[in-house]
Each structure stands twice: as C-alpha cells, then as structure tokens.
Amino acid sequence: MTGLALATLRTAWTSVVGAFVAIALGVGMISAIALVLAGTLSAPQREPQRFAAAPVVVRGPAELTVSGDTASNGGADEEDDEGGAQSVRRDEPAPLSPELIARVAAVSPVVEDRTFYAQLAGGPADQVGHPWATAAFAPYQLAAGRPPGTDDEVAVPEGTGTVGQRVRVLTAEGPRDYTVAGVTRPVSFESAVFFTDAEARRLSPAVDALVATGPVNPIESAVGPDAEVLTGVERWAAEPAAAEDRQRLLNTRTLLGVSGGIAAFVAIFVVASTFAFVVAQRRGEFALLRTVGATPAQVRRMVLAEAGAVGLAGSLVGCLLGALAGPVLADRLISDGIAPDWFSASPAPAPLAFSIVVGLGVALVAAWTASRRAGRVAPVEALRQAAVDDRPMTRGRWIWGLALLGCAVGGMLFVARVQPLIATVPVIYLWILILTVTAVALLAPAIVPPFTRLVTLPLGWLPGATGLLARENTLAAVRRTAGTAAPVLLTVGLAVSLLGALGTIDEARTSERDRQLATDLVLLPDGTPGISPVVADRIAAATGVDAATPVPLTVYGFDSGSLRDYDAIAVDPAAMARTVRLDVVDGTFGELSDSTVVLTDDWEIPVGDSVDLWLPDGRRATLRVVGLVATGIGTPDAYLAANHAARGLADEVLVPTDAGGDPAQLRSRIAAIADEFGARVADRSAYVGAGGGGTPQGSTAGIAVMLVVTALYSGIAIVNTMVMAAAGRVREFAVLRLTGATPRQVLRVVAAESLLVVGVGLVLAAAATALNLAGLLTALSTLVGATPARVPWLLAGALLAASTLLVLIGALITVRNTLRGPAVQLVAARE
C-alpha cells in the first residue's frame, strides 16, 4: 500500500496539501522555539568585564547548603529524615566573613570589593557604587580629575558631573552631597560611582568579593569549601551582571518551554483536525478501494503511509521556516527585555532534527485515529452513503472529550480548594485552560446541531433559499463545520482565556491591595529602584509620624523537607499595623521582634512553635512564630523585624494619616522629604494601580509573543481548512448551478455557511472561556474574596473580526475559482 499511497500523492496532491501546510507551519513554529531554547542551553561563557584585569576573584558561595541534621518546617529539634545535605541557589552570593578574608590575606595581597546602591540624583536607576581600589580591575580610566581622596569625594561617570561640582548621591543610608574629584570614562557594562575605600565600607560593610593577586593554589587552600575561587572566564560569575543574565536566561527557558508545549499542542490540534477532515472528504475513495478488495488494515496502512510522506516533507519545509524564524524570535525576546541583549540563536542540527522527528510523529499520531475511521468504512455502505454525517460524535470522541473535560473541572476544583495559589501562576494554570479548550473542541460536533437550529430558525421565515440552504448544509456536514470552527475556537478561546485569566488575577491583586491599605498617603520610587528606609526617621523627626518602610528580602527554609526560598519583608510591626489591615488568623502581629516571625497560614506551623530560617547573609535564625496571617496573592510568606533588612531598599513607604493635624500640611512636608530621597507622594488610587499589574512585564511580553505566534498559525489554519472544504465541494456547487442557482447565489450560500462556522467557533470559545474564568474566580475567591472577571473584550472582538474575515476570504475565493466553467463539466469532474 506504500506504492499506492505515493501514487495517490502524486496524482491527487490537492487532497493532502492542507495537511502539508499545517505540518510545515507547525514544525516551523516548533523548530524556531527549539532553536532559541537550544541557544539558551549553549550560551557561551562571557568574558569578564569588571574583573577583566583581576587575576583571582574570591566570592561567597552561590548556593546555600544546609546539612541533613537541620530542621524542616517544624522547628530546630526535628531531624531531616533523608539525612543528606540540601542546597538552593541564592538570589545573591553570601558576603565573605572576616575570618575567610583574614585567611586569604595571609597568603596573598587582596582588595575588598563592594557593590551597593549609589545613584546620582537624576541618574539611571541601575547605577551602583564601588570602592575606588577596585577601579583598576576593569580597568576604569579617568577622563578628568583624580581619584576620590576624602570620604566626601566621589568619582562619577563622564557626562554626569564635572570636577569640583557638588552632587547628591542616593544610597541605602539616605541622600548625601559629595564633591566630584574625578570623572571616569564610560564603560558598556555598568554606570558606577566610586567612593574612597573607607566610605564604601561605611555605606556597605559586607564584602561581596576579594580580588587576590597571589598564586592560585595557596588561595584555594585558604578558602577551602567556604567560598569560590574564580579564574579565567569564571570571573564573570562574580560580576553583578552575571546574576541578571542567569535570571534572564532562566526566564527565557521557562517561557520557551511553555511556548514549546503550546506550539506542540496547537500543531497536534490543527493537524489532527486537518487529517480527520481529509479522511472525511475521501470516504468515496476509500469505499472504492474496499470494493476492489482492499482490507481495512491496508486502507489504514495507506493513510499512515501518506501521513508519513506528507509529515516528512512538511517537517523539512518547516525546519527551513524555523531556521529563518528562530533569529527573529530571539531578537523579539531581546527587544522585550526577556533575553539578555547579547543573546543570539542560530540554526543547529540537534534542534532541527528534533523538530523533524516531532513533525513526523505529530503527523502519524494525528493520522492514526483518522486511519482507523477510514479502515472501518464498509464498501457497500460507503458507496451509497449520502453527504450527511450520520454519526458525527464517535464513541472515542465522547470518551476523550468527557475525560478531558472532567480533568479540567477536577483540576480547577483541586486548585480552588487545595492549592489556590496555583491559579496565580500562569505557566502552571495555563495547562488547565488548554484542557478545557481541547475538551470543548472534541465535544464540538454535539454542540453544532442545536446551535445551528437555534440561530438559523428565523432564516426559514425569510424569502429565498439562501438561509435555508446554509442551515441544511451546516446540519448535514456537522463534522466539517466542527473541523473548520476548531481553529476559530483555538484562536479566540485560548487567547481570551489566558489574557482574561491574567487580567482577572491582576484585578484580584488590585482589590486585595486596596482592601489592605489603611492609609491614604504613600511614597513610591520616582526614577529609583527603591526608597531608603532612613526616610522613616526623617519623617518622624519632621512630623512626629512613624512611617512603615517594608523592605523585601529573600529568606530560606524547609517546605515538606525540601530547602527553598521564600519572599519576606522586614518592617516595624507598630508602623505596619497602623498602615496595613492584615488578616491575622492566629496570634498577634504586634509581638514581631528580632527573635520572632509572623508567617502565612499555608506554612501550617502553629503559633508558639519555632522555625529555622536562613537570612540573605547566610546566617541561620531560629525564630518563634507569634502570628499567622491569611495567605493572599500579594502576601509575603514571612514578616521579619526591621533589623533583618540589612540596608535594603523599600518598595514603598506607608505614612499613617490618623495622627491628627492638618492633612494638607502633613502631605506638603512629606512631599519635600520624599523629593530628597528620590520618591514621590501618591494617593490610594496611584498606589493601588502601581501594584495592581502583578504580571511581570517580561512575562506579559513573552505571553504576547506566544499568543501572536499561535494566532498567526491558527489564522493560516482557518484559511487552509476553508480552502480544503470549498475545494471538496465542487460537485455540490455544480449541482446548485444546474438547479438554477446563479454564481452570486452560490457565493451567498457559502458566505452564510462561513458566518455560521464563525458563530460555532465563537460559541465554543465562549463556553471554554466561561468555564476557565469560573474556575479561576472560584480559586481567587478563596484567596481574596469576590473578584470581578476582566475579559479582554477588545481583543476578543479583534480576533473574532479577523477570524470572520479569514473564513470569508478563504471560502469565497476558493468557491469563486471552482465555479469557473460550465456546470456540467464540474459535475463530471473528479473529486
């Protein structure tokens, strides 16, 4: 049957050209993603920049390692059952201890390096500070002046100040004026302000790294397992930009992993629908084969052989498309700020070969079900079968559709009742949305007849036969209608479900933020990465009001026996209680101190027990739990006392407004202080709006890229399916012509059918979206209470309009071409 399959492809290639196009585009999409993903895995080791002239760099361990005798969540007395050490990557390497610095200094000359927040007023938000002694290791060069010689002198980048000028520098210690002693030439990797070594030590006591100039072996012996010794290209790991690059590459991999899964799903979805449609159109051909003696197994082998040939050819073309699209996708990820600006992707054998295997596998898997249906066609029954779908919903379709729908609903209920926070993680909850869309697509043939009868009921009362013919043709070809509506469902349903979910989550976050805020006066960063907590002291001295300066930090602890990181904030409990309405479910927030902690209730640790936490500097702290707050979307995992902040910056400053006095005067005095600290005064609405968009910009951009690719693929699939459907109805249109219909009337019938197809796709998409948002709202109600759904109506309307346009264009152009020539010749034409 392989030879017959190849012969069929040569003589009747138009019957499978739609499947070829679907596979080529699907593999092109997958291979482009695979190429970029491979680029992130094989990214070259970057050459050191800031430490380019440093012989040896010693930095703290990049991972926190905890021995097996350390407690899990229950407290310091509970042993870890596994007994082995566990490690977790830190947000930032731990600072070097004085003991380690002394050991290294005993065997080699060393220079202490510090990197800390230091921003010139009006300067870039990512500006940093360093001691001047480390400038030689970049090396930095002076364009004017001299190095800073006293603690009130600095060296600034060229273009930000002149020698002798007084400049204001914002640090974690607050604003301070310095005199410019020197001006450095610009470098590509950072914008830095240099201080004397003593001033840098005062501003940032912790030592981030050591530059050693002695032999490596004695340094490694002195360091031992307490730190990392970096030489050669490994020195790049000690630079601040390395952590950002690593995080960006990780974000890119995560996004591409999800995008690859979506691309594979879309490809299987569309290709399977296309093959099922092709087999349905070729029932007469298969019937003839059965009549001349072909067995069901032979028919199945022929269909699979055709699918293999088409899949291989489409995969090769798709790889060519992917090789061209991969660099374009990489550039888009860079421009959206997701991937590092030095990242690139180029064609590579491994991802292209993988894409070919995936494309061929998708084609064979998609054709397998269709081949079984083709093999079950009885010769006599098929030859006398009318063009009516007597059984559009097969048993397998019912089973799979209901099973996937049950999995989707079950997943939503599990998330809502057991793990509601999963609903706020798009890359995880997305798969539940996909399950719903797939289930609705499988059950589509059962929805088409009642929907068509309902919306076309008034057409029977209108004069003329156009509406009646469109109605009956749609009802007679339920499988064809469902197949052509599938890309519309995929485009509208997936996009609206996902973006609706993101918008609804942000709406819930905004509602929670608004409900918790107990003051109307907030300071927000204005062109700075954060606000120095020292501003609270300045406000208290000027107004007598104690402001809350919650400083975010990362702590580490055990979750079900596994070491992981937690989001925490360090804050003064009294000021926090006056500005934020926390939902304390047990204990009290007021007892928060250096030796206690307040946790969210999902820790499942009772008040009074102790918990082991590791602070950002690596110190282990055994803290007594004095309060539990309800888990929310924006709620940190732990609250610590302000002393644990370790000179970090606050994301906002909350000022109580119930202290009495004139509110306008209070606001005016605080605004003047805020301006000194690079902050601005915001009211409730501005504060809530600033924190409401909880989806990171990079994630939003990545999701937008993914949806654009999916929409383009689905749009092409819409045109492809409509062209195939119209091309397979040549005889039907010819019969209409012979019965007296004009070409314009035939086109009107096809247009009406096309609009019905779009309507079916819209109803299916609406059903899938409604179910998805209902499940999401149920989960969010557990976290933050009632939340309004935010449906992207503008996007839904745009996608619907685009789908309608594509369906009409694809159908009408093809039908117009098939109507050329005498109707008698069209009837005699071979399908």
TrEMBL record:
Pfam families: FtsX
Cellular location(s): Cell membrane
The keyword Transmembrane helix is assigned to this record: yes
Record's keyword annotation contains Cell inner membrane: no
Residue stretches making up the ABC3 transporter permease C-terminal domain: 260-377, 705-820
Topology of the protein relative to the lipid bilayer: Multi-pass membrane protein
Region (Disordered): 65-94
Name of this protein: FtsX-like permease family protein
Native source species: Plantactinospora sonchi
Lineage, highest ranks first: Bacteria, Bacillati, Actinomycetota, Actinomycetes, Micromonosporales
